[in-house]
Amino acid sequence: FFSSFWAAAQGTTSSTGARISSTSSSTTRTRTTPGAKQPVMSAGSGYDLSSSTFSPDGRIFQVEYASKAVENGGTALGLKCRDGVVLAVEKPVLNKMLLPTSNRRIHSVDEAHGVAVTGFVADARQIVNRARDEAIGYEETYGTKVPPSVLSDRLAAYVHYFTLHGALRPFGATALVASYDDETKEHALHMIEPSGMSHRYFACAAGKGRQPAKTEMEKLTLNNREDPAQNISVREGVKQLARIIHALHDEAKDKPFELEMSWLCEESGWKHKGVPRDVIKESVEWAKKDIAEAEEEDEDSDEEMEG
Amino acid sequence: MSAHASMHAPRSHAAAAAAADPYNLKPGEHSTGTTIMAIPFDGGVVMGADSRTSTGTYIAVRVADKITQVHDRIWICRSGSAADTQALTDYIRHYLSQLAVETGRAPTVKTAAHLMRRMIYENKDNLMAGVIVGGWDVVDGGSVYNIPLGGTMMKMPFALGGSGSTYIWGLVDHKFKEGMTKDEAKALVEKAIAHAMARDGSSGGIIRTVVITEDGCDKEFIPGDKLPYGP
């Protein structure tokens, strides 16, 4: 904690490590961190050592760096369809010796809520555990399932807490929360970011491929207010998410991956469940066909889809 | 007393005290030895109570208001220790208002009943409170929950409580039918409470009623000389 003060004041090497160069007067510097594929341009310069330090231009760099950590994770997508919510995560297979179904990225909080995570998966575990505690505590006190907005607000407050402590670091994980509200009979999708911000979405994406994924998701009919029946169904949503994840995956650059999907919809009895394997299989087959057809038709779209 | 009984001494002392003094009151404490009831109908709830608050044989308040509002459309009938039930309803009112802000919607009767039940059950050794939670909400319409002394919570087609209720179970069982209208329910509440007041020394005064619907709450009372039955 004190070391960050010294570094900010004098720009010399701090006791936390020799990462800071001695040219403190410049506001930007190029720094090669071990293991990075390319030099990183960063504007930290001493204001980025602690999440309890603002920079002169009003940013908290540790929180931004935490978001960067999430961007290295597998793509996680969420879609609020007219009859339910679908979650999908691209789970890189870290090791051929791993059991395929282990190391889950999608968790149930209670029957009415599901959380998909990306980024530091270990950090995400804490968020999921907290969500489970909140859900149980709410139901014990108030007798009904926790409403979606309350759960996401509480998780956001929890995540935010870690962004204003000198002794703690922010979570390097983002959580996509699919929920069903027992009382209003409405389903909802929320996303909580490392900064502690939480919003409600029609579609959201986090992780490696989030930019192209968002572009693809914006093309779907999710928010037609004049004719809500036009909005896509979960079955269609499952296919589309499978397609987006497969399209973004670069065979050459990225590791092989597993596709984890879950839904919370009428078909699942409004309980958060894994999408049945045969439905996933069907959707992946359709996705691959659709991608191949698109490639044949238009070579340019191939470049556009690559993250 | 045997060695076994000594482990349970506090309970048996309380039981003995309860037998001698049914209200288990501290000296000077007020009891709402009482008759309270609530009947839901299609679109709302009728809640009713007598108005006698007694300390032993002295009637401390003869026009008491035992039906307390804890949210826009949720009211609670109180019986037992007046102080305990007032403190409880104050807590519930506080928690419900905070919950309404956090969730952005009106709390349900079920939630209010749950909160009350938790509070009574977890503090049962120090409380003497039997309440009826009733109201209207958008999820269940009109509903009524009876929470007697130990902290059980029961959703009921109609609820009776208080010392005077013992005299009118038969009457209400006889007269109650499912699907009553607002006027039928109100008439039954008034008649039953009047009968209880006629026989229970701890119930009397006036009959207060609150009719709760989606559109609002109507508070009325029947003066002591115009009771449907009695005195």
Category from helices, strands and their pairing of chain B:
alpha+beta
Beta-strand portion of chain A reads 15-25%
Portion of residues in beta strands of chain B equals: 25-35%
> How many helices of chain B does DSSP assign?
6
Order of helices and strands of chain B: HHEEEEEEEHHEEEEHHEE
Uncertain runs of chain B:
1-10, 13-22
Radius of gyration of chain B: 18 Å
The helix/strand series of chain A, from N terminus to C terminus, equals HEEHEEEEHHEEEEHHEEHH
Number of strands of chain B: 13
> Largest beta sheet of chain A: what is the strand line-up?
10-3-4-11-12
The largest contact between protein chains, plus residue counts on each side, is: A-B, 11 and 15 residues
Which residue ranges of chain A are poorly predicted, with pLDDT under 50 across at least 5 consecutive positions? Answer: 1-32
Largest sheet of chain B: 6 strands, antiparallel
How much helicity do the residues of chain A have? 25-40%
- Which oligomeric state applies? heterodimer
- Mind describing the biggest β-sheet of chain A? 5 strands, antiparallel
Task: State the distance separating the first and last CA atoms of chain A.
Answer: 38 Å
Give the beta-strand count of chain A: 12
Average pLDDT confidence of chain A is 85
Distance N to C terminus of chain B: 46 Å
Write the layout of secondary structure elements.
The complex is a heterodimer of chains A (307) and B (231).
Chain A: H1 2-10, E1 29-31, E2 40-42, H2 61-71, E3 76-81, E4 84-92, E5 106-110, E6 113-119, H3 121-142, H4 148-161, E7 173-181, E8 186-192, E9 198-200, E10 203-206, H5 210-218, H6 234-248, E11 257-265, E12 273-274, H7 277-297, H8 299-305
Helix pairs in contact in A: 3-4, 5-6, 6-7, 7-8
Chain B: H1 3-7, H2 9-20, E1 31-32, E2 36-41, E3 44-49, E4 53-55, E5 58-61, E6 67-71, E7 74-81, H3 82-103, H4 109-122, E8 129-137, E9 141-147, E10 154-155, E11 159-161, H5 169-175, H6 182-199, E12 207-213, E13 216-222
Antiparallel strand pairs in B: 1-7, 2-3, 2-11, 3-12, 4-5, 6-7, 7-8, 8-9, 9-10, 12-13
